[in-house]
Amino acid sequence: MEEKIKTTKSKLQPVPEPTVRRMPNYLTFLKELQKSGEQYISAPVIAKILNLDPTQVVKDLSYTGITGKPKVGYVVEDLLNLLEDFLGYNRQHEAFLVGAGFLGGALIQYQGFREAGLKIVAAFDVDKKKIGTEIAGVSIFDLKNFRNLASRIHISIGIITTPASEAQSVADIMVVCGIKAIWNFAPVSIWVPEHIIIQDTHIYSNLAVIINKLGQTNNDK
Amino acid sequence: MEEKIKTTKSKLQPVPEPTVRRMPNYLTFLKELQKSGEQYISAPVIAKILNLDPTQVVKDLSYTGITGKPKVGYVVEDLLNLLEDFLGYNRQHEAFLVGAGFLGGALIQYQGFREAGLKIVAAFDVDKKKIGTEIAGVSIFDLKNFRNLASRIHISIGIITTPASEAQSVADIMVVCGIKAIWNFAPVSIWVPEHIIIQDTHIYSNLAVIINKLGQTNNDK
DNA sequence: CAGTGTGAAGTTGTTCACAGCA
DNA sequence: TGCTGTGAACAACTTCACACTG
Description:
Two copies of one chain form a homodimer.
Chain A: H1 17-35, E1 40-41, H2 43-50, H3 54-62, E2 74-75, H4 76-87, E3 93-98, H5 102-109, E4 118-125, E5 134-135, E6 138-142, H6 146-152, E7 157-160, H7 164-176, E8 181-184, E9 197-200, H8 203-217
Parallel strand pairs in A: 3-4, 3-7, 4-6, 7-8, 8-9
Antiparallel strand pairs in A: 1-2, 5-6
Helix pairs in contact in A: 1-4, 2-3
The first copy, chain A, binds a DNA duplex (22 and 22 nucleotides) through helix 1 and helix 3.
């Protein structure tokens, strides 16, 4: 349905990662805006509210393929659709989650992932007490069954919310089972083959930034 | 506060944020390494394991003030201490958390924050069923009491794990109570005065990166 | 003219190249 | 020779400047 030819028109290839990271912010803002019934929205207004540079917003949004009207801005409805399209919120990605602890549970329960195109279809753990139970309708299986289930359901994303010590071995299983992307919440770097997409969400990195900034201003009056 | 940033006498100002974000990764790796009894570690080895550029590692580590021995590397023990020093893991920062839902609970329970210098001393919610209970020894109070408690305990960090709709008003309370930094997990941008440090941890940004990368490679092969 | 859209300049962070050292 | 340490080249991202448009 879509060409992979490298015509000049094709928008797909080179989206800067920082832009991608901002896209969901635009989307959440626009959803809120739509509720208030606004028809149009301009980049400078978005920029002010999200605390960004106006030109940045214009450039970011252009990646969705939107075209705005000078002096007025963009049609909210159109922009919303193009953003959801860009972010892939329309297609469903199915995921297996390993590590049904507090964080894993939080992710499973997280409202909003569904409409963001992510569906956690099963969870796994090694804790006998957790196996057989379910969280928010998602069954928790023995990790030993991962391979078995993965062979039957085609899963593109694996989520790791295990303790650090288990993360690498879980990743290995995921790779063997043909998972294409791994979302790692364990506070260690894991190693995977080149072609696997890996996204680390290291909570300590964020904490480090906060504490570092606090330290820089702590002698201020 | 209108004027340009004054150079502080004590520490060198300019540590790149990406460097700060990588620091905890070095630390966790080194802690693991220390268990295995290694005395020395070199930048190229760290780089290989953490999948980074060797020069990058050298530059990053130099911000801690470490000096290594050519051909051998760095003394693990020293590097560990300097990293903990850099990251402020030695001083304790106390935090209030608002929103004792799944994510909030996960953070409270999160082992490791303590040794990373973050102590969540109290949690708040508006849900009557949660108020009065506790999670992992942390009491959950009525949000109405936030101001009262904040006036008695000196808190530098506020953590927001509420639904999006509540985030801004909670942030406002935090600002009024003199909190210096806000760690925001709600999926919206919140607005705070210039001098407040704000760190957004938007889970959707990470998801967006994964799905975007998946989309780029799905027509491969 | 207030806003879009885009090429150019500026800034920040990463990678290279090489000097110095044990 | 293998590693540290650093200035310089490079790449990525952001901000600026300005032409264009309703």
